[in-house]
Specification:
It is a single chain. The protein has 296 residues and is mainly β. It folds into 3 domains: 102 residues, Beta Barrel (OB fold (Dihydrolipoamide Acetyltransferase, E2P)), CATH 2.40.50; 80 residues, Nucleic acid-binding proteins (OB fold (Dihydrolipoamide Acetyltransferase, E2P), Beta Barrel); 84 residues, Nucleic acid-binding proteins (OB fold (Dihydrolipoamide Acetyltransferase, E2P), Beta Barrel), CATH 2.40.50. It has 4 helices and 15 strands. The strands form 3 sheets. The protein has a 5-stranded antiparallel sheet with strand order 3-2-1-4-5. Strands 8-7-6-9-10 form a 5-stranded antiparallel sheet, with no helix packed on it. A 5-stranded antiparallel sheet has the order 13-12-11-14-15, with no helix packed on it. A hairpin with a 2-residue loop joins strand 11 and strand 12. The longest helix has 5 residues.
């Protein structure tokens, strides 16, 4: 395989140094192993007016264009990076033996240019495969494939449509994550599309029915979704009547039993779980659950 120059750059060397030198802390990749959105450690090998070339352990150095060096505008490459700098980069594209990288997570994906016209006839209850392209404080942008097959179009999933109860967008999704979305609205005039990751009619429900439920009371819940830091569970209070509206509560990662690092290790959609109330926030209309045994 290709002898990486990461170690040489890190110690201030160059390509003429000891050919047998191996940098113990780095991984090597072939271009075929890399995936869009993948995070890699690298070292800046050289800078130009139009960007920086970074060694990530692949058979070619990758280019970070000046436009992808940071979230904001960059006037000079040297303002951000210099030769031999260690950097974290993300894979944008692998094409014709070339590697395109980004140092901004929100600039991994290019602009989605497909027309929105083809999305007008899609019903709001139809689920579509999407991929998160950008995460901001007000929501997440998701690209979905055009029904006409002419590339991708991008829509916004507002914060309120990412999870119920609402959470910070970065707690629910990450850039490059694959998600299921529904179309709420297509505005051809403004060239905008509103999306949702929630079921139609999904809501938090009413906390009143849980007012007298003690923290030692075990209730039946149904897993309805996942975030990076837990799971969403529909729960009904003890003694509920047929037709009662379930409450969409949150089960934090630390409250899942047995303990795990990823909610989907121990849980799956529609799984029935025994839960107890951990915290009730009436002001924000939130219910937090736990699966932990009472002795834990």
């Amino acid at each position: 395989g290709r002898q990486s120059r990461l170690g040489r750059a890190a110690r201030g060397g160059d390509d003429d140094d000891d050919d047998d030198y191996e940098y113990q802390g780095m991984q090597s990749y072939t271009l075929s192993q890399l995936k869009v959105g993948q995070e890699l450690d690298g070292v800046v090998m050289r800078t130009t007016d139009f960007g920086a070339f970074v060694d990530v352990g692949a058979e070619v150095d990758g280019l970070v264009p000046i436009s992808k060096l940071a979230d904001g505008r960059v006037n000079s490459v040297e303002e951000v990076v210099k030769e031999s700098d260690s950097v974290v980069v993300y894979v944008c594209e692998i094409k014709a033996g070339k590697l395109l990288l980004s140092m901004s997570k929100n600039k991994i994906f290019g602009f989605a240019t497909a027309s929105l016209e083809g999305f007008q006839d899609i019903e709001s209850d139809e689920w579509l495969d999407g991929q998160v392209t950008k995460v901001l404080n007000f929501g997440a942008f998701v690209q979905i494939k055009s029904p006409a097959g002419d590339g991708f179009a991008q829509g916004l999933v507002p914060r309120s449509q990412l999870a119920s109860p609402p959470m910070e967008p970065e707690e629910v999704v990450d850039v490059a994550q694959h998600v299921k979305v529904r179309i709420l609205e297509v505005n051809l005039e403004d060239k905008k599309m509103a999306l949702s990751m929630l079921e139609e009619g999904a809501g938090r429900g009413n906390l009143d029915a849980f007012e007298d439920v003690g923290e030692d009371t075990v209730m039946a819940g149904t897993v309805q979704g996942f975030s990076n830091i837990g799971a969403f569970v529909d729960v009904l209070p003890p003694g509920f009547t047929e037709g009662s509206q379930p409450f969409r509560a949150f089960l934090p990662l630390a409250a899942i039993f047995p303990p795990c690092e990823d909610p989907q290790e121990n849980l799956e959609l529609e799984q029935q779980v025994d839960v107890r109330i951990k915290d009730m926030d009436r002001e924000r209309n939130r219910l937090t659950l736990t699966m932990m045994p009472q002795s834990a």
